Amino acid sequence: MVQAFSQGLEELFPVPTVEEALELRERFGFETTLLGGERGGKQIEGFHFGNSPREYTADRVKGRRLIMTTTNGTKAFHSVTGGAEILVGSFFNALAVADRVLSSGRDLLIYPSGNYGKFSLEDTVCGGLLIDLIMVREPKERGTIDLSDAAFSARVLYQRFEKNLLDAFYLSSHGRYLASIGLEEDLPYCAQRNITDVVPVFKDGMIRAQK
Asked: In whole angstroms, what is the distance from residue 205 CA to residue 30 CA?
């Protein structure tokens, strides 16, 4: 998602199921709306895109609307709708997200989408990166930030892989799975840190980018 918005995507609708994606596209119109998503890491039949960020290039998504459904990520948005502000973060935009969180002055819940509801190594390391950036950039005069045990552990885990994030991807079960289905090139691509200042925001069922 962050990749697509960094390439000029106009808006994105995350939906839990393939059926909802197809129904929503019919409502918007086939000529104006793209479909992206995966099941089991593989592109859904009839969709324009799968789950590889390398597919979401400016020539394909700039100025367009995208409906996306994935095994884990798109469902997560509908679990946190009570948040005052729901941001989309990744390794790509962690610094921009950290700055936005600090400027808001609000408490922060980091919600890793995980892998079929289970712990995900790379998601937790990404959360740890965000926590580390927030802790380092917090103005001293504002006092200390209280971390939960889970947040503290995520930060420690990130620091373990800080010098080589790619190790975390190859050690994770999902990273190994992606490599096994021919998407190994996604691992070093996804391990890039702070390459965009775009911060997508989820509101009223839709995601739009802000800078």
From this structure: 20
- Other Cβ atoms closer than 10 A to 93: 27
Q: Give the global pTM.
A: 0.93
CB 4 within 8 A of CB 56: yes
Q: Which two tokens stand for residue 42?
A: 């593989």
- The pLDDT tens digits of the residues spanning 89-135 come to 999 999 999 999 999 989 999 999 888 778 999 999 999 999 999 99
Given a contact cutoff of 8 angstroms between Cβ atoms, the answer to whether 32 and 46 are in contact is: no
For 51-70, what is each residue's pLDDT tens digit?
Answer: 999 999 999 999 999 999 99
**Structure tokens belonging to residue 26:** 């019919």
Q: 74-77: long-range contacts (C-beta < 8 A, 24 or more apart)?
A: 74/14, 74/15, 74/16, 74/37, 75/16, 75/113, 76/111, 76/113, 77/14, 77/202, 77/207
Place of tokens 């691992």: 187
Residue 115's Cα: distance from chain center in Å?
Answer: 13
